[in-house]
Amino acid sequence: MGSDDGPPALSAAEALSAYTVMVQARAVDDRLWQLSRQGRAHFVITSAGHEATQVGMALAIRAGHDYVVPYYRDMALVLALGQTPRDLLLHAMGRAADPASGGRQMYGHFSSRARRIVSGSSSVGSHLVHAVGLAFALRIGGERDTAVVTSFGEGATAEGAWHEALTIAGIQRLPVVFVCESNQYAISMPHHAEVPVADVALKAAGYGMPGEVVDGNDLRAVALAMRRAMARARADGGPTLLECKTYRLRPHSNADDDRRYRAAAEVDAWRARDPIGRFGEVLVREYGVAPAVLAQIAGQARAEVDQATLDADAAPAPHPATIADHVFGTVAGAAPRSEDQRHA
Ligand SMILES: Cc1ncc(C[n+]2csc(CCOP(=O)(O)OP(=O)(O)O)c2C)c(N)n1
Ligand SMILES: [Mg+2]
Question: Which residues approach ligand 1 with their CB closer than 6 A?
């Protein structure tokens, strides 16, 4: 229950704020693709279509308390946890003030120490091992009542690291919620060519944890399933695998042409199930929100993203003298660099 057909599971305030973040994420997404076409953002990736899954997840996470180890597609998730469009634009445009990496990492490596968002590695699936190690460290350190959430695509479940992470989490009964954003493709590779069973959730049995299929385009269904899984993790009930079935509405990245492997009719059918339009209808029908309020939210999101773009555009690039900062093996201040001297 609590799906689009069930009773309201969220307060009116929660529902409106969740909707606002979904719209904001789509507005940032739209802008990223424009910037990429203009050559002003070198690499962009999309969360379009995944917003209900990601914002639904956030509704069960205590930002700054629980740890989140996201993957590159989780723009709506990090916005819901408190990052801003400006943070994301600075990251996409590689600026020095980029809070994720000071303009070092390619787009999608979100991180925030204050919000306990841990930067992922670029190697698909490898961040699950980090999430599990983190949960193990929390237990050893005696930190109770804190859960770790990690997300990934269905393609990642074919990786060795995925198997290792779920094995240890299952054996040690660690407080981890594994969320698969199951969107039917790993770039061009369809589900059946990478996952030997129809549902990723079925794999959970092999790791001694419950697995559940969730409608990933239904914000409330995701929020409810996540709340159950987080409650289990916090009560020392062990890990959970949730599979949120969804679809990405854009190509994988700006380096991908999805027309080569997806039929237009398939994409159109999923556009008709766009999670934002769907939840907007719920707001109007069940929460009595006026359509004009939804239009206002969309206008505000666009204005905020316009301002964030101007801010990021005007922000300086990382200084060349800082090129070796944070690189393993270099010691800050040890190697005099000509750029340091020129700008001293
Ligand atoms: C080990 C590894 N193999 C391949 C890649 C290239 N790659 C990046 S994302 C991706 C697709 C992953 O698909 P999925 O896990 O389903 O997530 P989605 O992108 O669909 O959300 C691939 C193959 C990589 N980064 N790392
Ligand atoms: Mg996928």
Answer: 73, 122-124, 152-156, 181, 183, 185-187, 252
